[in-house]
Amino acid sequence: MMVCITGTPGTGKSAVSEILRDKGYRVDSQNETAKKYIICSDFSRDTDIVDEDKWIEDFEPFEGIIEGHITHYLPCDSVVVLRCRPDILKERLIKRGYGPEKVLENVMAEALDVVLIEALEEHSQDSLLEIDTTEKSPEQTADEISKFMKGDIPGHFGDTDWSLFL
Ligand SMILES: Nc1ncnc2c1ncn2[C@@H]1O[C@H](COP(=O)(O)OP(=O)(O)OP(=O)(O)O)[C@@H](O)[C@H]1O
After folding, report:
1. Is residue 34 one of the residues assigned to a domain?
2. Residue 165 domain-assigned?
3. What is the distance in A from the centroid of ligand 1 to the CA of 165?
C-alpha cells in the first residue's frame, strides 16, 4: 500500500515525515526523487522547474509513504492532505525566508483549498484524510496518519473552511 502526504508548502509534510520515518515507515520525498527531473531554475521565484509529468509517469509505486505537494497525482491507495490556517501558514513561510510573492501565492492556494480539490478529483472520498495541523503538534499529526494507515480511523474531510481569509 502506498500513501501520499500532500498539502500546500509549509503545512508540515516534511516535519511529519521525519517522525513517521522514526516510527519505522519508509517515507520518500518528492523533492529528492524529482531531482533528476529538474529542467531549469527559476531564480526570480527561487525555485527549480521540474518536469512533473515525466516524474509522475516514471514513478514506481512502493510499500510506504511518498510526501510532496503534487504526490496526490501518483497512483496512491490513500491520500493525506495536510492543512494549515492561512494566517499561521503565512507566519511559517515568512519564518522560512520566503519572499512576499511566494508567501502570497501559497497562502492563497491554501485559502482556496487548491490541493484538497485536486486530491478529491484524483481519489475516492473514503481514501482521503484531511488533517488541520494548525493547533496540532507534528507528533499528533504523525500519530493520526499512522492510525489512518492501520485502518484505525476512517478517511474524512471537510472540516476546514478558510473562506474568511479570502
Ligand atoms: N501539526 C504540525 N504538523 C506539521 N508541522 C507543523 C505542525 N505544527 C507546526 N509545524 C511546523 O510547520 C513547519 C512546516 O514545515 P515543513 O517543511 O514540514 O512543511 P512542508 O509541507 O514539508 O513544506 P514543503 O512542501 O515546502 O516541503 C515546520 O517548521 C513544522 O515544525
Report:
1. yes
2. no
3. 20
